[in-house]
């Protein structure tokens, strides 16, 4: 399915999830600090480190997501070495997949964020296929 065919509500939901993934983190994130900005808890991180990784290229969205997440968690730019082999190698970045119903996935997403573990979410339509990938402890 091409991204252009997503309906507006799905795009809004995806944008909200990406915003959460970018700015929410847990107290356990070693290099990042949580801060309260106008009643919203945000994750502070060095944006120049994210910029240094560059923009996502076609077909490598998951690899960049892993690199961005590891950069925020580790406090230094992630090269992504070993995290791509004809597709993202989630385990190389310390992540694993989770699947279930939409309700289960959303509950798991919330639990992981509350526990201080940032997640990467791959959305498909219908949304019942949305589940987080979470870092291993």
What key phrases describe this protein's structure?
137 residues
Number of helices: 4
Strands in their spatial order, largest beta sheet? 3-5-4
SS class: alpha+beta
Poorly predicted tracts of residues: 22-29
Topology readout:
Elements: H1 8-23, E1 33-37, E2 40-44, H2 47-53, H3 61-74, E3 95-97, H4 102-114, E4 120-122, E5 131-135
Antiparallel strand pairs: 1-2, 3-5, 4-5
Describe the structure.
The radius of gyration is 15 Å and the shape is globular. The relative contact order is 0.17. The N and C termini lie far apart (33 Å). The protein has helices spanning 8-23, 47-53, 61-74, 102-114; strands spanning 33-37, 40-44, 95-97, 120-122, 131-135. It has a 3-stranded antiparallel beta sheet, with helices on both faces. The chain has a two-stranded antiparallel sheet with strand order 1-2. Helices cover 36% and strands 15% of the residues. The chain has 4 helices and 5 strands. It is of the alpha+beta class and 137 residues long. A hairpin with a 2-residue loop joins strand 1 (33-37) and strand 2.
């Amino acid at each position: 399915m091409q991204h252009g065919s997503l309906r507006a509500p799905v795009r809004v939901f995806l944008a909200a999830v990406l915003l959460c993934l970018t700015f929410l983190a847990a107290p356990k994130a070693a290099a990042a600090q949580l801060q309260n900005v106008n009643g919203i808890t945000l994750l502070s991180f060095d944006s120049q480190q994210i910029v240094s990784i560059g923009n996502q290229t076609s077909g490598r969205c998951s690899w960049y997501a892993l690199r961005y997440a590891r950069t925020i968690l580790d406090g230094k730019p992630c090269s992504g070495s070993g995290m791509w082999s004809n597709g993202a190698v989630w385990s190389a970045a310390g992540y694993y997949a989770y699947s279930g119903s939409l309700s289960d996935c959303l509950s798991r997403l919330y639990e992981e964020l509350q526990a201080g573990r940032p997640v990467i979410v791959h959305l498909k339509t219908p949304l019942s296929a949305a589940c987080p990938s979470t870092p291993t402890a």
